[in-house]
């Protein structure tokens, strides 16, 4: 019912320390995907979809926090899930990637795995949705633009390639989350956004992000003196 991308990017913080940034973005031709599919923390990013089992995402992030590798964590959850053939599950942690598409997912379905990202989708118009999403991210991986912006660009590329094939479903949704490993720096709230019901979800997600970012910067400037 969806397509999504999970990303890991390493970077250097202002003090010269090594950090990791995680992101996940998703869109579908159903409302409220942000409540079901994307999960991210300082330990990784996970997306659960197709016939959704939300616990795969929740417990996946929890297991990563407990120190399990992403492939061990997600494989263990799938092996304990009776609905495994109908699931799609993918994600990244600090060192690895994992992607699974059950054989009972609805065509077109599949996934792609890159050096620091995973993309998966089902009920798509074709494989080019996944390929174009991945290519759009790869074209500017670790770029100067914030990761949230680049994730939206990746969704837009997949959507332009056809996206979810159920054109009779007008009400759609999209969501993104970006987190990092910096203990003393909170992620800006515009890095966790949802468009729950729209006929133009990716466009609206971009507008929501830009508006939220502008609002955040205005607040930070207004209260720069700490009062």
Automatic annotation (TrEMBL):
It comes from Halorubrum saccharovorum DSM 1137. Pfam families: DUF1028 (PF06267). SUPFAM superfamilies: N-terminal nucleophile aminohydrolases (Ntn hydrolases). This is DUF1028 domain-containing protein.
